[in-house]
Amino acid sequence: MAKLIAGVMTSHVPAIGAALDNGKSGEPYWQKVFSGYEESKNWLAEIKPDVVILVYNDHATAFSLEIIPTFALGCADEYIPADEGWGARPVPVVKGDPDLAGHIAQSVILDEFDLTIVNKMEVDHGLTVPLSLMCGQPKEWPFKVIPLCVNVIQYPPPTGNRCYNLGKAIRKAVESYDKDLRVVIFGTGGMSHQLQGPRAGFINSEFDNRFLDKLSTDPVALTKIPHLEYIREAGSEGIEMVMWLIARGALDEDAKEIRRFYHVPASNTAVGHMILENAPY
Ligand code: DHB
Ligand code: FE
């Protein structure tokens, strides 16, 4: 049977992708960011997942205000990189796993989480920057990816509690799949940041570090944070952190924290990263 072995949480700052793509990752400003991921890259290369379920948000690349799915599950064979801002990143095409994705869709929808099924979709920095941080610059991504795109762009986003419970349903789906696959789930976005309005540039390290502590040891406490508290305490884009709760819900409540990194700033954003492993560790 498939096994969900670990969760990787990480920010998705687009400037990180641009730094890597333009050969600037060795510059002191960026070195501080990339150095936080060196051990994590080794860890991922060692545990060799077959599939990564990548929980992320789109930034008006694949979806616009015309269609706003709350949860969109990628069931395609492949996903072409595209982007706003700096444009499409020169990274490999992302290969999917339509068979496992279809199984997850069936299991989760029958468990009453009404996902949108997406058979064609471009993927932006929300998905490709986490891959770059964890895999570097390979010719091909070393595993298949099932994208799970979450609306955290346009009000109303899903609640943290809904996200956490969806994670539990995803775990159940994965572990009822009859192929021996090693599956890792990524929860991405965050940490505190605000890109517009009078508070543009807002970062709250105290909130972020409390969030990381609770994510590790008391995730249920985080499921009770209302949207207004995210926006007040972590900035308007801090709401992206509900996506980490999907990944956390797919892990054991007492999953083991094996890696943590926090750094301010990268572009306008606080960068946060954590790896949690399910038993047996
Ligand atoms: C920045 C961060 C984001 O998450 C994003 O989508 C765009 C820009 C930033 O820090 O500049
Ligand atoms: Fe973003």
What does this structure look like?
This protein is an alpha/beta fold and 281 residues long. The protein has one domain (3-277): LigB-like (Protocatechuate 4,5-dioxygenase, Chain B). The chain has helices at 14-21, 28-35, 38-47, 98-110, 125-135, 160-174, 205-217, 219-222, 227-234, 242-249, and strands spanning 3-10, 51-56, 71-74, 78-81, 94-95, 116-118, 122-123, 144-150, 182-188, 256-266, 269-277. α1 crosses α5, α4 (98-110) packs across α6 (160-174) and α6 packs parallel to α10. The model has no long low-confidence stretch (mean pLDDT 97). Residues 12-15, 59, 193, 195, 237, 267-269 line the site of 3,4-dihydroxybenzoic acid.
Which secondary structure elements does this structure contain, and how are they paired or packed?
Elements: E1 3-10, H1 14-21, H2 28-35, H3 38-47, E2 51-56, E3 71-74, E4 78-81, E5 94-95, H4 98-110, E6 116-118, E7 122-123, H5 125-135, E8 144-150, H6 160-174, E9 182-188, H7 205-217, H8 219-222, H9 227-234, H10 242-249, E10 256-266, E11 269-277
Parallel strand pairs: 1-9, 2-8, 2-9, 3-6, 4-7
Antiparallel strand pairs: 1-11, 3-8, 4-5, 10-11
3,4-dihydroxybenzoic acid is lined by residues 12-15, 59, 193, 195, 237, 267-269.
Secondary structure class reads: alpha/beta
Helical content band: 25-40%
| Annotated CATH homologous superfamily | LigB-like
Outline the biggest β-sheet: 8 strands, mixed
Strand order of the largest sheet: 6-3-8-2-9-1-11-10
Instruction: Write down the domain tally.
Output: 1
- Provide a count of the helices: 10
Give the percentage of residues in beta strands: 15-25%
CATH architecture descriptor: 3-Layer(aba) Sandwich
Shape: globular
H/E element order: EHHHEEEEHEEHEHEHHHHEE
- Unreliable parts: none
